[in-house]
Amino acid sequence: NTLADRMQHDGWLETFLQVRFPKEQLVVRNLGFSGDELTLRLRSAGFGTPDEHLTFSKADVILAFFGYNESFRDEAGLADFKKELADFITHTLSQKYNGSSEPRLVLFSPIAHEDLGTPNLSDGKDNNRRLELYTAAMKEVADAQRIPFIDLFHATRDLYPKIDQPLTINGIHLNELGNRYLATLVDSTLFGPAPA
Fold it and tell me: What number of other Cβ atoms are within 10 A of residue 195's Cβ?
């Protein structure tokens, strides 16, 4: 989704991965696309399917960011979202994008909405209420499917008041500093403390 799409502009996560695993010769392909949902991916005709792009990239590990756009369905859409997410997991793990083995998959929740304290932007309270519902739904499905799940919602909600400058440009899209903090969080959650 947009979170993943925008992360590529600063490159912090890729940097942390390369520093942590310097001998692995990792190749990172960011296939995030603004506005993507599990079952809605608006593209030009002939763009290709997610499976085609993951096969072309020979994906071994997939970091999947979903839930923000879907959260606008509110409580009425939770059951459908959980089914769509379970179907996505089942389908993804049945593929052999690298030609020989099923991929590893990690799910990430949306980040929290940051209240920037300006009358020109939403304070994010209603948005955060919905995002928390969808984060809980993602955790439930991930746990049932035994898939690693990273809760970015609660982590960023707790982080925003601790930092003395904004981490987003508008409450929902991270700025460069926000992407650095998020990459640090993802790296340490997946792999433990950073190497010295």
Answer: 9
